[in-house]
């Protein structure tokens, strides 16, 4: 790794810790200045703590106490993966409570954004601000197609020996392909103490939970009074981009940022533009 990379990134060096809640040992990492309200990051489908882009985590951790963790049954966290988003939200609340925090900001990407929405509705007193990226609401049209899209892209990626996220998160064009490769390379910066990849059964359970979320009744997002920042690319194949606009209309006072010529991973492709927006929002 070049010295330039090392100077740019420190998330790859952060050791994991554990905390127990309701019989589950949660693996987590934290960095940044303590004392303020922490920003808890909720990861995507099949993701572990190693799947966070250091170019998002590091600059936010310069100003805020950042906490990442692996959901129950994923990575180094024990237990069995829940079969519903609502149970995942209860787990996240238990994890936050076990760390002793009464109030946090939530940063949810994709599946993590669904968990964040459920958490803020079920445990509103726990959340100060919400960042929802590459995600959609319960009952959102198109979310239920995620199993077919995911398996199709996994097959396409396998045939040419690439990471499925290059297909699922990025456009397959002159802008998207190099952005995808750069993102995948950033995820490889951590070379020690990496978490085990998600097991197939756990992955399938998460996929079914997302599909159930897409097929469930529409939630009343008007009850979300917390300041909310919504972000996505304009061509999200996993969670249709129009759902970001739908959430923006339904969450009072929310802000919406859409990045042109990008997909599900728009915030990673345009991390240099997104991070200042996120920092301004969190720091207000």
TrEMBL record:
Gene3D superfamilies: alpha/beta hydrolase. Residues 38-268 form the AB hydrolase-1 domain. It holds the Pfam family Abhydrolase_1. The keyword Methyltransferase does not apply. Keywords: Hydrolase. GO terms for molecular function: hydrolase activity. This is Hydrolase, alpha/beta fold family domain protein.
């Amino acid at each position: 790794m070049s010295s330039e990379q090392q100077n740019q990134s420190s998330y790859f060096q952060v050791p994991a810790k554990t905390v127990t809640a309701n019989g589950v040992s949660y693996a987590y990492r934290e960095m940044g200045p303590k004392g303020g309200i922490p920003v808890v990051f909720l990861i995507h489908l099949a993701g572990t703590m190693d799947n966070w882009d250091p170019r998002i985590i590091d600059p936010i951790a310069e100003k805020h106490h950042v906490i990442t963790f692996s959901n129950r049954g994923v990575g180094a966290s024990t237990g069995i993966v829940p079969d519903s988003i609502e149970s995942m939200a209860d787990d996240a609340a238990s994890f936050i409570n076990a760390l002793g925090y009464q109030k946090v900001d939530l940063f949810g990407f994709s599946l993590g954004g669904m968990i964040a929405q459920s958490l803020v509705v079920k445990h509103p007193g726990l959340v100060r601000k919400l960042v929802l990226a590459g995600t959609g609401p319960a009952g959102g049209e198109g979310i239920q197609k995620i199993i077919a899209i995911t398996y199709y892209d996994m097959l396409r990626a396998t045939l040419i020996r690439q990471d499925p996220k290059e297909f699922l998160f990025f456009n397959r064009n002159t802008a998207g392909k190099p952005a995808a490769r750069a993102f995948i390379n950033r995820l490889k910066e951590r070379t020690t103490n990496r978490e085990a990849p998600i097991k197939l059964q756990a992955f399938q359970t998460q996929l079914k939970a997302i599909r159930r979320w897409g097929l469930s009744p529409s939630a009343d997002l008007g009850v979300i009074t917390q300041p909310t920042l919504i972000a996505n690319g304009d061509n999200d194949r996993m969670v249709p981009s129009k759902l970001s606009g739908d959430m923006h209309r339904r969450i009072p006072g929310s802000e919406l940022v859409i990045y042109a010529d990008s997909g599900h991973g728009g915030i990673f492709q345009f991390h240099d533009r997104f991070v200042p927006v996120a920092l301004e929002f969190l720091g207000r």
